[in-house]
Fold:
Amino acid sequence: MANPFWRNESLETYLDRWATERPDKTAIVDGRGRYTYAQVARDVERIAHGLRAHGVTPGSAISCQLPNWNELILLFLAASRLGAVINPIPQRTGRASCASW
Structure:
């Protein structure tokens, strides 16, 4: 039985199509705001351009320490667009967790 929800396409392909077909629809939401598909596509391209300008190429690993906010999703998508991978570093907050380092 074929899966009607997944077309065996990359996330970049989905994002590009959705940004064209439904640019004003909400794509991602967090406690600080929301992005439409057009905004996500624009910002992912901008971030990918900046990463490329700083030497990120296919196969590069990008370490980051970000909370689970919209910006983390944008970074993941930008890295994927470049063929790079993300190495997320878990956030540790509070005096007790910092003292354990």
About this structure: The longest strand covers residues 26-30. The longest helix spans residues 37-53. The chain has one domain: 11-99. The radius of gyration is 16 Å.
